[in-house]
Structure prediction request, 311 residues.
Amino acid sequence: AMSSMFVPEPVMSLAVKPKQTTQQVQFGKALNKFTKEDPTLRVKVDAETKETILSGMGELHLEVYVERMNREYDVEVVTGQPNVTYKETIGKKETFDWIHKKQTGGAGQYARVMGYIEPMSESEQKEEGKPYAFLNKCVGTNIPPEFYSSCEKGSEDAMAEGALVGCEVEGVRVVLQDGASHAVDSSDMAFRTCMAAAVRDTMKRANPSVMEPVMRVEVEIPSEFQGGVVAALNRRMGMIQSSDVNDDGSGIKIVSEVPLANMFGYSTELRSQTQGKGEFTMEYERHTQVARNTQEELMKKYQEENANEAA
Prediction:
């Protein structure tokens, strides 16, 4: 049998829309064809902003598709600011006991869930086959068994959109231990909402952190440009891993790890630094924790966006 292809997770996303609304159909056709032929290109519609989000392996990757839409389908595309795909995780175990109740005329909503969330190691995530897990340890019928699946869905809702910056959550195990229900007011919806709110609220207390994609960047340049290029990588918060001179000493290969958020516009900078002789390749390495001040900025921005939407 053929071994299945390794498809890396996308690391960069771009909001796209056709310039003229009349081109919506062609736009859809193009995206459909592109995603069929390239598994690393993903398309999703943001539930809140209703924007079409194109995700891929980097700036160039997405630019190529935007250009192809223009050439092959005659669709001029307006693109937003490219965004880095952040993730969220927690640092310690934390318990929850959350009650969700709503009394409007008629049947209200009532649900109570108790349990804890805890961090999962990378090996556990691999075993699980997905970056989070939901464990049901309820005994008895305090939560009627027919609502277990709703609790799981609620915890999945919280994983799809975390509490800090509204990004995907990974490395979290949610364990449901007990709860309470009401004969009339409990429903699938009540338990789902309750569970999502419980997990999001508890995450804020569980020493949470935002993770950003870090790229392995390999730069090949003539050796006379080494100083300037290394300095530029350092300015972009890069950690130099190695620099090897080739046999005749004319060229140098520098390997470093740089946060993707700092890599925007690097190709132009490298060209101008090396008179067009330098080139670089970049691939996804892993997600690592962002600096405290960056995390606070991201959270502030997310809260402001939410406040604006609520208003």
